[in-house]
Amino acid sequence: AWLKSWSTKWFVNQDDFASIRDHFGEKVAYYFEFLEFYFLWLILPTGLGVLVHFFGSSYSIFYSFCVILWSVVYIESWKRREKELAHRWGVKNVTRNESRRPAFKGDKIVRDPLTNELKPFFSPWKRWARKIAGLPVIIGGALVLSLLLTLVFVLEVFLEVYYGGYMKEILVYLPTVLFTLALPYVEEICQDVSRWLTDFENHETHGSYDYHLVQKAFLFKALNSYLSILLTAYVYIPFGPRVIAVLQAIGLPFATVAIQPSMLQDRLQAFMISNQLISFFTETIYPWMSRRVISGAAMIHKEVSQKLHNDASTEKTGTSADSRVAEPVKEPHQDPKQVREFLRQVQEQVDLPEYDVNEDYGEMVEQ
């Protein structure tokens, strides 16, 4: 009902935000408030960017200065809005009294000086030691991911600029397609590593746990999204001719191609389009396909198991198992089709993954 009513509106009003807060809590309501606030504030740089694109010059200093100024004003405005919401919803300074995570494990029991109750305690020094111990894992994972993305980038540049052989028009898209197909699994591995490291740090409150989890997730998301642009800007454009000269000197058949700074613009535009397509695939198409495959496999397994059970019962007793089952008594005013449809919808809702607002926050930070 909410989605149907919101689809007819340009903006979500305060009553809708209050409904979100009442049903899902302040954290989710904060996200949607921030989303609308961010969307409205993006109108100004978007309009200015369109004007600069058509009537200004490339790499406009004026537009860069305006974006920096807009960013400062926007952040300060959101801070004021955030405090207004905290006061209205009665959650100001709520993190100071946040409840303890059930998964938190203390190394000793101490007495709280304020409440005089016994509570588990975990030394901050030990937590910092665990953070430091997890740094090699983070750095190693970042290096492996960077090498993978660098390989994809090198293949893209080679096929797009230097390769002139058979099926170039098709092969030029091969690295991107392969990486897009592998991206859901790569992101899942990165999320598992981030959660394992954050669990290992043993944070006491949900707020602290979510904060450090988002930090790690953002690192891997940033590498997935921006490494190709960084390689183009700081490696390929300034040092590309030297690398090609070295490869030609050792006998590799690389053609001499002039590298233009406009390639960075083309790469950024391609990133803006491909990133949306990849996000749509990983967030919509891939989960839908996974649920369909899993539910289909479960249905086939259930039918096969039921058939084997019926066959075994028939061989054992000589009669059909279904013939020995009494017909269920139908309740009055009960439509079996409606009941089955309702149960099917309930099962589909149960099979959906649990919503985690931190993932949306991570994507927002990435944007």
Automatic annotation (TrEMBL):
It is a multi-pass membrane protein. Residues 324-338 have a biased composition (Basic and acidic residues). The keyword Transmembrane applies. It comes from the Eukaryota. Residues 308-338 are annotated as: Disordered. Keywords: Membrane, Transmembrane, Transmembrane helix. Its main location: membrane. The chain crosses the membrane at residues 37-55, 61-78, 132-158, 170-186, 218-237. Residues 20-367 form the Anoctamin transmembrane domain. Coiled coil: none annotated. GO terms for molecular function: chloride channel activity. It is found in: Membrane. GO terms for cellular component: cortical endoplasmic reticulum; membrane. The keyword Transmembrane helix applies. This is Anoctamin transmembrane domain-containing protein. It comes from Lunasporangiospora selenospora.
